[in-house]
Fold:
Amino acid sequence: MAAGSDLPDFLTPAREAVLGDIERELAEVRATSAKHARTAIEHRLSACQALEPAVERQLRSPEAARRLVDLLALVWEALIAPSWQRIRDVLERDVLYRSRALARGGLAALFRDLAPLITLAEPELRVQCRGVEATRFLDGRGLRLRPSAFIWPYASATLDEMRPPELVYPARGVASLLSTAQRDDASLAALIGKTRAQVLAMLDEPMHTSGLARLCGRSPGNIADHLKALRSSGLIGRARLGRRVIYSRTPLGDALLSGAEPAARKGWRESPWADVARRPEALSS
Structure:
């Protein structure tokens, strides 16, 4: 269907689901009544430009909803599933980062790096959406935030009063999914080893062992050995979050990577994760 500011609502279930539970989400879409699907599709077709006659006939057919679900399943299997673990790592790192930012600096810190796409001008949260000028009042209902690996450089928000308020925004670090380029620092590699230098450089954002292993193309056991060595040298710290252990650079690791003392590191700014390096147990608070 043509791109636009609106989608048939049955294609984006509002109910909570486990991250990446595609079977459950597709099952919810398949459960949509034929009448509901037909009404939603007709509403969207009335607002979009003319389509190819064959495509329009399929969208207006009684089997349209089922065909759309089948196509979504094919897209998932062919394009998303092979990279899903890396995509999930990016989304989880974004959630961790913003949770910490909210705890340390409130809403201002939570949305700071999303400007000008999303800006907080209390009591308003302003979202730039292409071709859309509308206001939705939350009235104490809260706002669900969803990071996305696919929406950059845009954002979207639900305007339908019958659905929970939701904001979809670009996840931090999504560029790492588009490039396999790795930092080339021969002097650091000569000092601590190529793989350890690579791991240290990748910890710009806290990560767990499996995520690092996927990025490095090595086994989790191999990466765990390098993490142990880096931690024993004081270059990284760790903190347990639920069932996972998250690793992040310490100020010493930052200094080694940048070639400067921690206090004089050019361009270094306090981040929501800085205290994790100094006090790893802070993550569990």
User: Anything to note?
Assistant: The longest helix spans residues 84-111.
